Q: What sequence folds into this?
């Protein structure tokens, strides 16, 4: 099949009808709280894939493989978020709850982030709050993965040193 293909709406609806429940059930193994999001993202990735490469030879295998990778990525994001939340809670700070203390923390964090260069700040935000992989960030900022990783590490060190000063 030729690239730059699109999925006919009826064909897309038929695929969603046939696979959405199964993909949701499949994704629950990794991310019970976000299984439907994983299934939706999988179909969005299919549309993007088809437009660039045409239909995969085995659509069902492609869908399940993509759903698995997407679910694992989502699980990793969840683990990173929980680790970050624990780090802040260990210091007596709670993320994302409405409280006067959190407003002070948010102000402090905003000031620290604003002290970074725009590029470094974007990398930190994409990684920590966006949950993107270093590979995804590298593609977005058009740098090597190792370069993005080094910039991320340096930015975190700068944020930590700002916190201790």
A:
């Amino acid at each position: 099949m030729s690239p730059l293909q699109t999925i006919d709406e009826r064909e897309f609806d038929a695929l969603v009808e046939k696979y959405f429940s199964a993909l949701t059930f499949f994704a629950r193994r990794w991310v019970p709280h976000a299984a439907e999001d994983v299934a939706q993202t999988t179909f969005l990735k299919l549309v993007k894939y088809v437009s660039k490469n045409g239909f995969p030879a085995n659509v069902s295998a492609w869908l399940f493989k993509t759903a698995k990778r997407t679910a694992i990525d989502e699980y990793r994001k969840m683990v990173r978020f929980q680790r970050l939340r624990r780090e802040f809670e260990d210091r007596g700070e709670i993320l994302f709850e409405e409280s006067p203390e959190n407003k002070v923390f948010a102000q402090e964090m905003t000031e620290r982030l604003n002290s970074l260069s725009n590029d470094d700040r974007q990398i930190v935000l994409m990684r920590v709050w966006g949950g993107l992989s270093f590979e995804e960030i590298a593609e977005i900022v058009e740098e090597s993965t190792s370069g993005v990783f080094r910039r991320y590490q340096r930015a975190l060190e700068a944020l930590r040193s700002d916190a201790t000063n």
